Each structure stands twice: as structure tokens, then as C-alpha cells.
Amino acid sequence: MIGLPTGTRIWIAAGVTDMRRGMDGLAALVQTALTENPFSGHVFLFRGRRGDLIKVLWWSGDGLCLFAKRLERGRFVWPQAASGSVSLSGAQLSMLLEGIDWRRPERTWQPSQAA
């Protein structure tokens, strides 16, 4: 994953997005559906109907970047809402990109005593 500057917000576009859209189409979707500025430096994520493909739109300061990832097995965990957006932390983004359920991460072990 590319290191994002401090203060970068990460937004998931709820619902299904037409994955035939490119940079310009997704940037227009950010402006109209999410009412955000695609050139703000924030990260915007979109998921296709099948759920195994996501696209990430990010303004790096000197150009618009479009990244795509397809899972060979499984589906990306996505909000149930049909519209709107959800904000994620950097750790949640990492889990999402790995195909892990970012909504309810569970620690595998927690200490019960100090000594």
C-alpha cells in the first residue's frame, strides 16, 4: 500500500458502482453522489456488483491515481447501505484490501495478568 499523508481521510462509497468507470467518471461520482472534492487528497473506494473488485481513487497532489484490486477468492466487505459514504481508518483500509472483515476485527489474544 502507498503511504498516505497524515490527515488523509478514507471514504467508502456505499452501494454498487459501475466498474466500467474510469478516473473521470469516478471523480464525477465523488462530486455528485458523495458531495466531496475528488482533488482533496482523500481516498475514495468503490466496489462492483460481484464484490470481488474495488477501485481506489486518490489525488496525490500532482495527479489523479486510480488503483484496482480483484480478489481471486472471496468478496470485499462493504457497508449494507445503498447510498452515502463511510469513513475508514488506515488500519481498516489495510484489512479491507486484504479481504478481512474490517467492521469487527478481533484480537486473537489479550493478557489477563501482568506477571
Q: What is the end-to-end distance?
A: 38 Å
Q: Outline, from the CA principal axes?
A: globular
Q: Radius of gyration, Cα only, in angstroms?
A: 15 Å
Order of secondary-structure elements: EHEEEEH
Q: Which residues sit in consecutive blocks of at least 5 with pLDDT less than 50? A: none
What structural class results from the helix and strand content? alpha+beta
Mean pLDDT across all residues, rounded?
86
Describe the protein in words.
The chain has 115 residues and is of the alpha+beta class. It has one domain. 16% of the residues lie in helices and 23% in strands. The chain contains two helices and five strands. The chain has helices spanning 23-32, 90-97; strands spanning 10-13, 43-47, 53-59, 64-70, 85-88. The protein has a five-stranded mixed sheet. The chain is globular and about 55 Å long. The termini are far apart. The mean pLDDT is 86.
Detail the topology: elements first, then pairings:
Elements lengths: L9 E4 L9 H10 L10 E5 L5 E7 L4 E7 L14 E4 L1 H8 L18
Parallel strand pairs: 1-2
Antiparallel strand pairs: 1-5, 2-3, 3-4
